Amino acid sequence: MAQSLVLISHGPLCEALKASTEMIMGPQENIYTVSLLPDEGQGDFEKKFDDIVKDLDDFVVFCDLQGGTPCNVISKKIMQGEDIDLYAGMNMPMVIAFINGVLMGTPVDVVQEAASHISHVNDLLLADDDDEDE
Fold it and tell me: Most buried residue, 100, 101, 124, 126, by CB count within 10 Å?
């Protein structure tokens, strides 16, 4: 069985990220989502998370924001001894890199992948203009 990915976030961000990723990569049966909704507390979120992961043998968790409630709930589980890989600051390149790593059977540095896709496009465009002038 392939490694699963659990996306967690404030509101429906994780669900939208999964749907947007599927537009590019196709349906993803091993990606799950857990949203913290406005009327829910830590206990509600933890129960939803536990319900999702109870049948998963091998999974990684990506969350939206370090220090936010979804991240803090899972961090507490880690501090209590649960074996969970948790990454904060999820973005689409990170999710795509994870999927490609699973498909290829090779480890991927998802933090490096996520960071390497952050750019100020204006600078890139201006750099290209400068190259054409020479």
Answer: 101
